[in-house]
Structures are given as structure tokens and as C-alpha cells.
Amino acid sequence: MFKNEELEINLGPQHPSTHGVLRVKLRLDGETVRHCYPVIGYLHRGVEKICENKTFFQGQVWTDRMDYVAAVSNNLGWAEAIEKLMGISVPRRAKYIRTLLTELNRISSHLLWLGTHAMDIGAMTVFLYAFREREEILDVFESFCGARLTTTAFRIGGLRDDVPPGFEAKVQAFLDRFLPCIDEYEDLLTENRIWKKRTIGVAPISAEECLAMGVTGPVLRAAGVPYDIRKAFPYAAYDEMQFEVPTRMEADTYARYLVRLEEMRQSHRIVQQCLDGMPEGAVMAKLPKILKSEVAEVYHPIEAPKGELGYYLVGEKGGLNPYRFHVRGPSFVNLQALPKMTEGKLLADVIAAIGTLDVVLGEVDR
User: Fold this and answer.
1) 35/25 Cα distance (integer angstroms)
2) pLDDT digits (tens, 9 = 90+) for 109-129
3) Which domains, ranges and CATH numbers included, belong to the chain?
4) Tell me: the pLDDT tens digits for 251-289?
5) How far apart are CA 16 and CA 2, in angstroms?
6) For the whole model, what pTM was predicted?
7) What are 227-237's pLDDT values in tens digits?
8) From residue 71, how far is each of 63, 78, 243, 268, 331 by CA, in Å?
9) What is the 3-state secondary structure (H, E, C) of 205-271?
10) Burial status of residue 233 (CB atoms within 10 A of its CB: 0-12, 13-18, 19 or more)
């Protein structure tokens, strides 16, 4: 009657806090997680193989559909990887605009993470606050390229068009009111005793474990490792920007929350520098109408909102499309840390762990 039995359950893929298409097989001893096994593939579309059968120009739109919360960052990685493969030099003004839009995208991605992560744990109000500011950023994207989510914001060689009239004033208006908004989020959460009990000491993962599994981004920096590709291997206009790399030492859910908040402040700082120092000139390099590659291979990493997003491309002589294409996605790599973060912890902490990793399944499954 009183025997102990371990129970196997499925968390997801329909559960709202598993982002729709993540299934987590759990073996429980009461409320304690004894084994955690993420099951992926429910959203698989074969993006890499599709891009191998599209021209270099056509492949750009497929990058939007991976991490659709950070489509602008995906666009930048693809464009710069092709430019590296073909030796294309991008005008300085285009680099500044790319950097500005990519940092706005980092803020919008972190805002969606903050709102949904807090709501998963039980804090509804923050979701409404975070989406209030995110809407303004999506308005900026819409004014630039006509799209809000799947932006296809950039082109190989630069930008399709220069920024429209009133664009810089629109961005400045957002910047002028955004920093106090971060303070509002902190007023709601940072010293909230319920939030602290649900996040401090929850889902820990050490720097050594992160490095062993290839975990990058805010999860790694919250474990005390100040690795940021924008500093380590500067791209776009980041070599001209002044900003700090936020880190914490606690390596738990609360630390990752604080790191992402500070990252939004640093992104605000970078966007302001882009506006203040915006150069004049062209926004597109002179390119042939048909791009043909040489025999070469490149790997180009960028610091996406969730970590290192790398594009590996192989070209063939006279090729109109990549001979081989592979994406090193941060959500996919970081997700393998979930069992380490949750085994031996409580069932409720699995929800917090999934949220603090900030995975997007479109990029995990591709």
C-alpha cells in the first residue's frame, strides 16, 4: 500500500510552457525529477537542406523561420557568412544600421523571454508590461522593412533600402522611454519574495558544465564566463561600439534573469551610439545580379540573443547556391543542458528551467 514507485509522465508537447512543440519525458519519484529526457523534432522542416537547393539570395528568407523571435539576428548571420565566403565588403552606413536593428531585436527577444518566463512561473503582470515595449520595437521593424516578425531585414552586400524618413526619430523616441521601463520590470520582480523563491538556486549549471556541453549566451555568462562574440570576434559595427558584457557568478535562474536585464540596458547603449554616430553614404555594395561562389568554406558566428549562432557554408566553383550548409543554433545546443539542470530537482522547477534557457523550437528543429 505504501510502496514507492517512480512515475513516467510526458510534459508537453501540448503544454503551453513547453513552447508548443517540446516534449519532455520525466521520471518522477513523488515531486522529484529522477530522469529528464527532451524529445524534439515536432517542428522539423529541413531548412539547411532547403537552403542548399536555393540561391544565395533566396536562402535569406529561410533564416527568418528558424528563431522567429530573433529573425533580424538570423538574417545578419546569413548575410555576413555569404559576404565572408565571397569576399564582399559592406558599406559602413549599412553596418551601423544592421547593428542598430540587431540590438533592437535583442531587446525584443529578451522582452518576449521575460514576459513568457514570468508568466510560466506565475507572474502575469510582467507579460503585459514587456509586450507593451516590444510592440514599439516591432513598429520600428515594420517602418523599416514592412514586416514585424519574419523581417528579411538585410540583403547580401548591405541593405535593400536606406532607412525611411522619420526612422531615426522613431528609434530615439523609444530609447528615451525604455530605460525607466526596465526599472519597472525590476520593481515588479527583482526583490519580489515569490519570484526569488522560484528562481534563486533553481536550475543551476556551472561554468564547467556549460563549457563541456557548448552552452553559450546569457546562460554561460550567468555562470561567470564573460564570453560574447561581439567582443571576442567583432562583426558588423561592434568594433566601434562601447559596451559591457554582463556576468554573474550564481549560475541559477535568478542570475540569468539579471544578466538579460543588464543586456537590454547595454543594447540600449549600443543603439544610442549607432544613432549618434550614424555615417553617411551608400547602404549597398556593388554586386553582380547573379552571385556565384568559389571553392571555399567558412564558419561565421554571431552573438544571437540566445547565444552563439554559427553558419557553416561550403561553396563550389561557379555555384549559385551553397554546396553544404549547416547551422549551429544556440537553442538546440543549450537545450541539452535541461537534464543537468533539472534532475534531482522538483517538477515545478522543470518549467522554470525551460523558461530560463529561452529556447525557440523553430530553431531547435529547423
Assistant:
1) 8
2) 999 999 999 999 988 899 999
3) 7-365 (1.10.645.10)
4) 999 999 999 999 999 999 999 999 999 999 999 999 888
5) 33
6) 0.94
7) 999 999 999 99
8) 7, 11, 23, 19, 14
9) CCHHHHHHHCCCCHHHHCCCCCCCHHHHCCCCCHHHCCCCCCCCCCCCHHHHHHHHHHHHHHHHHHH
10) middle
